């Protein structure tokens, strides 16, 4: 089948506009319910288990779920299972190990709204420098992360609507900022649920329809084996060469970053009650396995369906939708890509805004912003950050997955070990936390510049474990935390036990 360019369809355009209108209505409704900073940044800690779970998953996946993972499976076959397994284990571990204690600790620590403010209050730092160091790394890596979403959005609009790439990027900025700006966390969480369900439907429907076109599952597997049997072997690459230890560890290692992703951790803090977190975890883990399976099957069935082979495997989902569905259905399914992009970018903008308002504002003004100031400053921050990210996204040749991998590794290595140990280690002090953040966040860009042998390992893995060593080593080499800090930690653990 020829891989012709997408043709602008009035029906597809109408579907996109209807979807965006729905998103804006949700944002307006949430705007009417937003009264203070807790509402704006954490939705008043009022999310139900299934909303928190789907929202966390949707804000996590970005366009990677419908563009990157199917494209990877299209090119590499079942090798893609390793990254899916690593990420599934990572999200399960974060729900089971982090969600419940973080929900209790952050609420008890004077309603800490952001990761930097949580760390600041966990170690009772009178000076804001621990929070500021955290906020700087968040802004640095999230600026890259948001720009990757805008790159993906620009390429989507450019492919589907054939509008200039730069125009497409600014359209994406307008769509994302509009409801994030006014509704804050409630708008983001509610739209993330809509978008998460839309992404799920797309990843279930497309593989089923393609399998039907191929004559069923058995016929599809046989056809894929005839085309390239190595695509069905998770232990080899597409050329038949065995995957080495570095490759497998790198792919599985993606899951380590979940402990340090502020936009996902925010969902844990916003769950209505700590008692409801096990239910949220079950929803979240189940959703993750479901959509990963669908995304990989999309890539595998696309490898059979398209002949000749596509020049760009990341277009496989879009081209399958274009080839097999009525324009109305195609418009809805293509909106799922936009949903995936928006559901991550909106959450990241909100985290960046919170870091500026809750942490850096404190350093400059030497005081906490009032409730009204926090909401106004938060909205201005969203706009400024989005514009900066759009300027970074203006190069149409940028590789989305490369930018995502960089930002994902940076956040995971910087914050994962410090956060995890802060929840479970009584002896940990602020010096260890700061060392872990700096070492982890710095290792990632340095490791990326190295090559050959073990330097081919994904930078997240060495960054995470060097950060872990830094937290432990510096904590043990410096004085124990003050008695007030350990007493507060004991109180937090008691609250956790009382929460059931």
UniProtKB/TrEMBL annotation:
Query: What's the superkingdom here?
Result: Bacteria
Q: Source species, please? A: Exilibacterium tricleocarpae
Mind telling me which PROSITE patterns this protein's record contains?
A: NA_SOLUT_SYMP_3
Look up keyword Metal-binding and say if it applies: no
Biological processes per GO annotation = proline transport
Q: How does it sit in the membrane?
A: Multi-pass membrane protein
Q: Which UniProt keywords apply?
A: Amino-acid transport, Cell inner membrane, Cell membrane, Ion transport, Membrane, Sodium, Sodium transport, Symport, Transmembrane, Transmembrane helix, Transport
- Gene (name only): putP
The name under which this protein is listed is: Sodium/proline symporter
